[in-house]
Sequence to fold (166 residues):
Amino acid sequence: MEFNDRIRSKVIRLLYDYWTALLRERPIPTREDIDPRRLPEPVIPHLGLFDVEHDPRRYRVRLMGANIVAWYGCDVTGRYLDEIDLGPDPGPGFAILDHVVRCRTPAHMMGEYNKQDGRHIRYERLVLPLSSGGQEVGMLLGASDRLSDQGTSNPKESTPKRAKGA
Fold:
């Protein structure tokens, strides 16, 4: 199955198409290529933007979309991913982020976990590398869409809202 054939969510598909249009015969786009005014409106509340620190490897949340904030339960903008509740075993999630940074390639996943407060979260997620002008990945652009119990996007979560943070 091709990478883009796995994508179920409309907002995930829109972000992937936006990112691939920015490639212009390069392996990955730069952060400067991202124009918030040109992002597809339905994607904005589902966006995440993460700074990549390399030594040691850490991911800081630069922007968290309003829909993610709503279903996660709080705004984690400015915090490091290793400081927040990502369920009992966040290791595989960090391994995927590390793979995107190391291989400079997109990653798509579906998953679920129970937060420490007992809420169950099911999601579809896309993580895309952005260079900082050279070869090194300096940021990750992503989107998450909450899935219903049937594994489809939750229509209540797909209504356009503005992202928080900048």
Observations:
- The longest strand covers residues 120-131.
- The chain has one domain: 3-35+45-150.
- Residues 91-103 form the longest helix (13 residues).
- The CA atoms of residues 65 and 163 lie 4 Å apart.
